[in-house]
Amino acid sequence: MITKSWMAWIAAWAGFAAFCCQPGQAATTSGTSIVLKNPWSPATPNGAPTAAAYVAIENHGLNDDRLLGGSSPIATKVEVHEMSMAHGVMSMHALSDGLVIPAGKSVSLEPAANYHLMISGLKSTPKEGTEFKLTLRFAKAGDVPVEVPVLPIGSRGPAAAMPANAKHH
């Protein structure tokens, strides 16, 4: 027998699942074990030569893979960059051998982490409220496309871009 409390529990979980699986939250890949979640990029000022993009990468496979870089119609180059701090000086450089995505694990490219995608040679400026295509290249999974929403200039991520009084439905 299904009770009211059981129905409420089912409704709560259904609502949670609907919220977590909104369009744009995850880009599942056909035929690969790589899943890209929550891609985003902060808008850039007019004339900026570079932009950054961030994404969570899940490897549901049994073997490690490696993010090698990517491509986008808005730029001439997409590289995986690492930031590091030495003697009080921050430096950034491209990872020539790519970034390992361990089997069964997730790696987040985000402002607070050490890794991001550097989009260089911009052909068009990422504007707030738009999206651009990005294809990430993996050693084993191959090319994995994703649409990247553009958030306000200086954004620290999707949650930070949401107004304090906004409600999730």
Question: What would you note in describing this structure?
Answer:
The chain is mostly beta strands and 169 residues long. It has one domain: Immunoglobulin-like. It has 2 helices and 11 strands; from the N terminus they run H-E-E-E-E-E-E-E-E-E-E-E-H. Strands 1, 2, 3, 4, 5, 6, 7, 8, 9, 10 and 11 form an 11-stranded mixed sheet that branches. It starts with a helix and ends in an 8-residue tail after the last helix. 23% of the residues are buried. The model is unreliable at 1-30 and 161-169 (pLDDT under 50).
Which descriptors apply to this entry?
disordered C terminus; 12% helix; disordered N terminus; single chain; 11-stranded mixed beta sheet; globular; 169 residues; mainly beta; Immunoglobulin-like
The CATH superfamily label reads PCu(A)C copper chaperone
Radius of gyration (CA) equals 18 Å
Structural class: mainly beta
Q: Give the overall shape, derived from the CA principal axes.
A: globular
Per CATH, what is the topology?
Answer: Immunoglobulin-like
Percent strand:
35-45%
Write down the overall mean pLDDT. 81
For the report, how would you describe the main beta sheet?
A: 11 strands, mixed
